[in-house]
Specification:
By secondary structure, the chain is α+β, with helices and mostly antiparallel strands. 20% of the residues lie in helices and 25% in strands. The protein is built from five helices and 21 strands. Strands 3, 4, 5, 7, 8, 11, 12 and 15 form an eight-stranded antiparallel sheet that branches. Strands 17-16-20-21 form a four-stranded antiparallel sheet, covered by helices on one side. A three-stranded antiparallel sheet has the order 6-10-9, with no helix packed on it. Strand 7 and strand 8 form a beta hairpin.
């Protein structure tokens, strides 16, 4: 009777052994499924992170392209805040340093860059800048034409002459389109140009405005010695520019950007300088790309050479003949006639490296001042440059691929 009952139980139910086997199989399947789901989820997160990094890189390069293409020539500037030293022995016309709008700092990552003393100038062609520890990355400073910039003509008196701009005199203009307190600007005529920061604007007589640029700003370390427009009143203008620095914080892999808006205690939300502040660099770095393992700036010449250590020469200064041999050691590699492209090598964590090329159109044109009676109309910028300007030598002597 007992045996019959056991057989009946076996035929209708599940034994303990079968339950144990089923549990083991379920646990194995569940464990495998969890591992697969975890890996899939992790892979999805990695793909999303890579896509986000790519989007940020594209945004960075789009902005960088505009800044490079609209970096301006400032050979005749006198502002010591923008000096770049020339190599030893390259002192033609007794000029040992040049005030320039493209300032390379090869071998400088953030810590080293922030440690530079005020108004430091260096020779970027010095190869020793790349020797030693923590010299794998570069920094860069550019002065470029603002997107909302327009030309503002210097006002003229009843006799057709511009007002004095030297010493502590303000710049008197007939309009202040796109100019405001705290903005950076260039003053230019047929002889010179210079960069300054607007510290105040006062309404003048008639429909004129007085623009002041005192030493309240780090970027105004000295007064003008030039009376802009004195010899050619019709060629004297003021227009807005911007200043930007790029550097890499190697300790956390963040590429940083500083637009210098907050220098000198300037408060962008109030459009004025905060009380109690003084002339100084704020070093207000904005993160623009994370996960960066390397940031190099390369300078490409029309002769095919590429370097991280470009030579600061005089604008238009090329090779010279020494006997029957061409000596190019002092040729300008930061503008006319040598510079063709600027490229960025970007190494990102877990992603393939990128090399992106940009064309410094204005630097290749070499405009540092206006021709006599040179009237300026329209916006002073080039949002999109024709293909030939991106590739061709200004004289038509060479070409390359963007």
């Amino acid at each position: 009777m007992l045996k019959q009952h056991q057989n009946r139980w076996s035929s209708k139910g599940v034994t303990i052994i079968e339950l144990m086997i089923a549990g083991t199989l379920f646990a194995a399947v569940a464990g495998t499924s969890y591992v697969i789901m975890t890996k899939t989820s992790r892979k999805g997160a990695e793909v999303q992170q890579a896509a986000k990094s790519d989007r940020e890189a594209i945004k960075l390069f789009d902005r960088f392209q505009y800044e490079v293409e609209n970096t301006i020539t400032l050979f005749t500037a006198a502002n010591p805040a923008l000096q770049v030293d020339r190599p030893v022995g390259c002192d033609s016309k007794s000029i040992a340093s040049v005030n320039w709008s493209l300032r390379p700092f090869p071998g400088y990552e953030k810590t080293r860059y922030d440690a530079l003393a005020d108004y430091t100038s260096l020779d970027p062609s010095d190869s020793s800048l790349l020797t030693g520890t923590d010299r794998d990355d570069d920094s860069l400073q550019m002065v470029y034409i603002a997107k909302d910039s327009s030309f503002n003509k210097l006002a003229q008196d009843g006799g057709g002459a511009t007002y004095p701009t030297d010493g502590s005199n303000p710049i008197i203009v007939s309009s202040i389109d796109d100019l405001a307190i705290g903005a950076y600007a260039v003053i230019i005529d047929s002889e010179m140009s210079d960069v300054f920061r607007i510290t105040s604007i006062v309404a003048g007589a008639g429909s004129t405005y007085q623009i002041y640029h005192t030493n309240r700003s780090y970027w105004n370390p000295q007064e003008f010695t030039q009376n802009y427009g004195e010899k050619d009143p019709n060629s004297a203008f003021v227009f807005q520019v911007e200043i930007v620095d790029y550097t890499l914080n190697a300790s956390d892999g963040t590429l940083l950007r500083d637009d210098h808006r907050k220098d000198d205690g300037f408060n962008p939300s109030l459009n004025d300088f905060d009380p109690g502040t003084s002339a100084s660099l704020a070093r207000s770095w904005e993160p623009v790309l994370n996960g960066v393992e390397g940031f190099n700036v390369n300078y490409h010449m029309f002769d095919g050479t590429v370097t991280r250590n470009p030579v600061m020469g005089l604008s238009g200064e090329g090779c010279i003949n020494v006997g029957s041999v061409a000596d190019c050691s002092c040729a300008n590699q930061l503008g006319v006639p040598s510079l063709q492209f600027i490229s960025i090598d970007l190494e990102r964590d877990g992603l393939s490296g990128t090399n992106t090329t940009f064309s410094p159109v204005n630097l290749k044109r070499g405009m540092a001042s206006l021709s006599s009676n040179g009237e300026l109309t329209g916006p002073p910028l080039y949002l999109t440059s024709p293909a030939w300007e991106k590739t061709q030598h200004p004289t038509g002597a060479g070409s390359g691929a963007q």
